[in-house]
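debug: dumping io for the single-chain case to check the tokenizer round-trip. Nothing else runs in this session.
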Amino acid sequence: MCLLLGGCATAPPVASVPTSAATGVPGVAALGAGFLGDVTAPTPEATVNPEPGSWDGVEPPVGYRVVLISAGDDSGTATLAGAVQDWAARSGVQLERLTASTDDEVEAQINTAVLRDADLVIGAGNAVVDVFALLTPQHLAQQFLVVGAELPEPTENLTAVVWEGATFRGTGLSAASDYDETTITAGRADDAVTAGVASVLHGHTGIVLRLTF
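debug: decoded output
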């Protein structure tokens, strides 16, 4: 009727409630404006440079379940895995850690993690990258996150977080910077985990987050 009669007042717009993207988890805290910058929806395989702290306050919902897969006994891997465990403890996340020493064991642990039907599977350490690159496209219903390394051609269910010195892309492939284990500190690893999880919770997946420190 308002279309036919003059003088009808226009209803005020309904205020939007911060929620995650359509493919993300509803109800989580909003990301800061600097997380994606001017990009509304990053394209697959895009590299995003979130502003430091733009992921602060984004926490997983109650009951969130994570499986951590780590491979290797180097200090970088230990630092990354420790950051995941610390994050899970303070966020009340249900965490299961699976370790591996060989590519075959990484493959077996990925299959085990998928069977767990966890909300997120996190990979830590350069030694998981080659197998993640092969297997994550076979499990598109499962969300994966790699911290401290990236995949050369991530599918929509794989998100990665890297920074200068921690950009390994797989055996025999060039990276944005030379690997430098000293750049993998507890503080940077913590930022990588929290930023990566925040991106997944908001449905910004299949991309690479490149952090600056």
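debug: round-trip ok. The chain has a mean pLDDT of 89.
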